[in-house]
Design goal:
The complex is a heterodimer. Chain A is mostly helical. Chain A is built from 14 helices and no strands. Chain A has two domains: about 5-65; about 70-280, Orthogonal Bundle (MetI-like fold). The termini of chain A are far apart. In chain A, helix 8 packs antiparallel against helix 9 (about 185-195). The longest helix of chain A is centred in the first third of the chain and has 37 residues, at about 5-40. Helices cover about 75% and strands about 0% of the residues of chain A. In chain B, helix 3 (about 65-95) packs antiparallel against helix 9 (about 200-230), helix 7 packs across helix 9 (about 200-230) and helix 11 (about 250-260) runs antiparallel to helix 12. In chain B, strands 1-2 form a two-stranded antiparallel sheet. Chain B has helices spanning about 1-40, 55-65, 65-95, 105-115, 120-130, 135-140, 160-185, 185-195, 200-230, 235-240, 250-260, 265-290, and strands at about 40, 50-55. Chain B folds into two domains: about 1-40, no CATH class; about 55-290, MetI-like (MetI-like fold). Chain B is mainly α. The N and C termini of chain B lie far apart (about 50 Å). Classes of the chains: A mainly alpha, B mainly alpha.
């Protein structure tokens, strides 16, 4: 056998190995998700069948209706949206204003403050959740959307400030100076800068949304009934009397995760940026 | 005139920062400081006992408590297994996916998906996947002749089951991290190595690894801190800390003590200890890897 064909055999062997490994990784990632997905379309008789059906024999949508009646899932989702929406609003508004201040104006202690905010990102919520619970109950905000929003901003606000300061630092000052020469106030100049940093706001929004939508520990601590969020309600189904309603639970799980799937699908490039480049900066 | 301008500009800067800092002080800095104060007190909120100063008694009791030893050992074990596992798998996947092939971007997107799914949802997905009778894993392994395993109720396996679920959701993070690092390596380094006659393995050892060492260390640190201090949602859903304390880790134990049994002082002491151990650990790791 000549050298060229030997090399090409080696090359195609390599490609096959690569293919096998990639397929294996995809199977490992998708199998647990598939099990949840397929269960949500099964009748309860099929769910409790031994051995389990890998492919549902009959596909039904009953679970997607039933999840809204065995728990108040609509109001749980609404609470989740309210908490996530208000948390995003508060974090983005206060965070970008503060980031602008830290980026454009030097004042005594401004560097220290920024260092403190970056440091806050490393502090795990478990390190302050007990006093925060006491604070929220002293403010009479237990089981309210606002109480949970307060808790969530402790995570999302430092991140917003951090990422927005990065964006403002990279933005040339010329635009704002030109705006001010044109007779705009400092506030007007800030508005110009904010518009230019819109991609930054967008990146921050995605992060804040995912973080607040997915958050569980604060939610299970602060909410009881009226302000209960979707993840707390779904976990509560495990305590359901008689049997764990896995058909309804998996259906609810998929509805709850839908916004996250949408973000992963539409904003994949941003996601890598937030979780990787953000850290590397 | 110039002076007035700089003074007002400083004042504006402070004013812009104040609202955010005020809110952060209320919801983070103040509770953090209060946590230290609370840890020196005994305060059983559930039985209405008053808050009394006890000095270091909480810490003393923890240090000699066998439950705390178990919890600490579980947390350390979890960190020691999950972080290298996720780093290794993540680096492997990143190396695999840094080769060009058709559909690579789609594969990358699918594999990074678990990272975004809520940890609670991951817990529920895996609880159902692991389920003894109705789950998918046991019948699947049964095809290869493996007898059914009670993944979440066997004290000798439960922590490992939690670790696997955690690796499923956190490996993508490490993969993206390593992937970004690999993209930053200049091509010509590989060309030079090729001219020198380096084999594939030698290229990895002498070009790839040294080039991404900084990023690997950073990923390692971030994941280690997370594993030690943030493993809550998964355990809460999968095992609740059981069976027989075999998956009881620091965040779960702190939560149970402070916010379920309402032993406020002891819970605070636990979280302060967690934070202290983390700080020491990070410092040591940082010193070790700087060389």
């Amino acid at each position: 056998m000549d050298l060229v064909s030997k090399l090409s055999i080696k090359k195609s062997l390599r490609r096959i190995l690569l293919l096998i490994l990639v397929v294996f990784a995809l199977i490992v990632v998708l199998l647990p998700l598939y099990w949840t997905f397929s269960t949500s379309f099964k009748e309860s008789r099929a769910i409790l069948h031994i051995p389990p059906e890998f492919f549902p024999r009959r596909i039904i949508f009953h679970n997607y209706v039933e999840i809204f009646s065995i728990i108040p899932f609509a109001s749980l989702l609404l609470n989740s949206f309210a908490v996530t929406g208000i948390t995003s609003g508060v974090s983005l508004i206060l965070g970008s204003i503060a980031a602008y201040g830290l980026s454009r104006y030097e004042f005594p202690g401004s560097r220290g403050i920024f260092g403190l905010i970056v440091g806050t990102r490393m502090i795990p919520p478990i390190a302050y959740i007990i006093p925060l619970f006491l604070l929220v109950s002293n403010l009479r905000l237990i089981d309210t959307v606002l109480g949970l929003v307060l808790a969530h901003t402790s995570i999302t606000l430092p991140f917003t400030i951090w990422i927005m300061k990065g964006f403002f630092d990279e933005l040339p000052r010329d635009f704002e100076e030109a705006a001010m020469v044109d007779g705009l106030s400092r506030l007007g100049a800030m508005r110009v800068a904010l518009r230019l940093a819109l991609p930054g706001l967008f990146v921050a929004l995605i992060f804040v949304f995912v973080e607040s939508w997915n958050e569980f520990m604060f939610a299970v601590t602060i909410t009881r009934n009226a302000a209960k969020t979707a993840p707390v309600g779904l976990v509560g189904l495990l305590q359901y009397p008689y049997r764990q309603p896995w058909g309804e639970l998996t259906a609810g799980l998929l509805i709850y995760t839908l916004p996250i799937f949408a973000i992963a699908y539409f904003f994949e490039k941003y996601v890598a940026k937030i979780y990787v480049l953000g850290v590397l900066k | 005139m110039v002076e007035i301008q700089t003074i007002t500009s400083k004042a504006i800067g402070v004013m812009l920062v104040i609202p955010a800092i005020a809110l952060l002080t209320l919801v983070c800095f103040f509770p953090l400081a209060q946590n230290v104060e609370l840890s020196f007190h005994s305060w059983h909120l559930a039985i209405g006992a008053p808050k009394t100063f006890v000095g270091l008694a909480n810490f003393e009791r923890l240090i000699f408590s066998s439950v705390f030893h178990t919890v600490l050992l579980n947390t350390v074990t979890f960190t020691a297994i999950s972080v290298p596992l996720e780093l290794g798998a993540g680096l492997g996947l990143a190396l695999l996916l840094s080769r060009k092939f058709r559909g690579r971007d789609a594969v990358l997107a699918v594999i990074s998906l678990p990272m975004l799914v809520a940890p609670v949802a991951v817990g529920l997905v895996w609880k159902w996947f692991y389920a003894l009778d109705y789950g998918m894993l046991n019948p699947l392994l049964g095809v290869f002749g493996v007898p059914p395993v009670n993944w979440l109720a066997d004290p000798s396996i439960a922590l490992l089951s939690v670790t696997v679920a955690d690796a499923w959701t956190m490996t993508p993070f490490m993969m993206l991290f390593c992937y970004a690092g690999l993209q930053m390596i200049p091509r010509d380094r590989y060309e030079v190595a090729a001219i020198d006659g380096a084999s594939g393995l030698q290229k990895f050892r002498y070009v790839t690894l040294p080039s991404i060492k900084g990023i690997l260390v950073m990923g390692l640190m971030i994941r280690a801190i997370d594993a030690f201090t943030r493993l809550f949602d998964l355990v809460y859903v999968l095992t609740g800390g059981g069976p027989a304390f075999s998956t009881e880790v620091l965040p779960i134990y702190t939560f149970r003590t402070g916010l379920r049994h309402f032993r406020i002082g002891m819970g605070s002491a636990l979280s302060i200890l967690t934070l202290a151990i983390t700080v020491v650990f990070v410092y040591v790791l940082w010193k070790l890897t700087r060389r």
